[in-house]
Amino acid sequence: MKTFQRLIYIGLVAMVVVMIWSVKIITQPSSCHPSLNPYKKLECSQDSKPATYDGTPPSASDVKLLSKLFPAHTAAFSNSAYEVWKYPQLWADRRNVYTAAAVESGQLTAVLTAMSTAKIIQISDISSGRQNKLMLVLDGGQIAIFKPKRGHDRHFAEIVAFHLDKVLQLYRTPLTVGRKLDFSSAELQSVINDDIQNDIRYIDHANEWCYYRSCCGQSNCKVVMPSCTEDGLMEGALVLVLPFQLGELTRNPMVDIRRPFIRMRLLMPLFGADMTYLLDLIDTSIFDYLIGNIDRHHFETFDEPGAAIILLDNGKGLASTATDDGYLLEMVRNLCVIRANLWKSLSRADILDELKLSLKFDPLHPVLAEEFYGALRRRRQTVVNTVVRCARQHGWSNVLKYDL
Predict the structure, then answer these.
(1) Do 374 and 290 touch, CB atoms closer than 8 A?
(2) Residue 254, pLDDT score
(3) What is the pLDDT of residues 330-358, one digit of tens each?
(4) Rounded Cα distance, 354 and 163, in Å
């Protein structure tokens, strides 16, 4: 009998340790990681403070830094082209990449149009990660990341994720637009940086251009599949680099959503009155469930208290219309809480019709095959059913959470 009681005691102690460890993962983001911002040095500073942005053109030090990163063509920036790039700097704060006002005023449309049409000043390589990526400097000095079409790298998923973020009114996905690059044009050939001249090659027998990514000595990088033009044009998603005044991004490990969160509901009071961080994780898990993104192994926030999770790197989503990754909803099922604003958007029956209409304005329209809308409708209904089930069990006042 004593042995049995001892085993029960050990089991209870182990359970408490696991529960506390799980809460620690959720409540304590890692302190420091290299920035994903190409203007910043690859180092971390705990003392850096976001600067306010007054809408003035780049300073002499900014231009000097740009000239080091992209030595050719820096002097070609035009003041008129720079005007539209003011907007993203003015919208962004620790909780939003852009705002509802930006959408309603037409400023967001102006920036997306500029992204898809602005003259390209410089093209350079980004060797980090396993995805093919090019860094473009657009007229006016704005930097954007071009993610070309390539096999399992679904560039269209990046575009859809941005528009879904917009209609859900999360406003946490970097601005993304479809664009095609003509590598056969003399204008584009003249702005390709020297470091990738040999990586962009003309394939005689196919009469197309291909980009073979340089790995810069990375052990985990293999040149398996290049990104190639089709009928002379390379299609891809162009992602605007996040505003620099927000400071550096901190990379945090993603919570294992397959953990027994049902036990953690008992520990939710430990989060205190402000459940912002937990609700951000739930927002993210719902967003990933909708687009079928099972590749989010970490997430990024700005290094500032209360900063939102930024929904970066969505290119592994929308792989299948037949499979729903239900485990991504475990946090919702077991914790039974959701941000009230997200629920308001999801509960609208026409939300995916709005998504479809929004995507019609992208230059790569049609971005998404019709069968994917059916999958999105099915997944949205699953989320709605899950939340309604929670409300029946715990009451709406306990399920819907409002930001302080």
Answers:
(1) no
(2) 63
(3) 889 988 999 999 999 999 999 999 999 99
(4) 9
Residues near 287 by beta carbon (within 8 Å), at least 6 away in sequence: 161, 164, 165, 168, 170, 293, 311
- 327, two tokens: 């485990």
Q: Is 18 helix (H, G, I), strand (E, B) or coil?
A: helix
Instruction: Give the C-alpha separation, 374 to 362, whole Å.
Output: 20
Name the β-bridge partners of 233.
230
| Distance of alpha carbon 226 from alpha carbon 183, whole angstroms | 14
Q: Which residue has the tokens 């085993």?
A: 7
Q: What b/e readout covers 317-355, taking b as 16+ CB neighbours within 10 angstroms?
A: bbeebeebeeebbbbbbbbbbbbebbbeebeeeebbebb
CA distance 65 to 83: 20
- Other Cβ atoms less than 10 A from the Cβ of 182: the count is 14
Tokens describing residue 62:
């900014």
- Quote the CA–CA distance of 362 and 38 in Å, as a whole number: 26
Query: How many CA within 13 A on the CB side of residue 387?
Result: 24
Three-state DSSP state, 10? helix
Q: Rounded to an integer, what distance in angstroms lies between the CA atom of residue 107 and that of residue 359?
A: 17
Contact 287, 168 (CB under 8 A): yes
Confidence band, pLDDT 50/70/90 cuts, at residue 66: very low
Helices within 265-402 (DSSP H only) = 276-291, 330-335, 340-346, 351-359, 370-394, 396-399
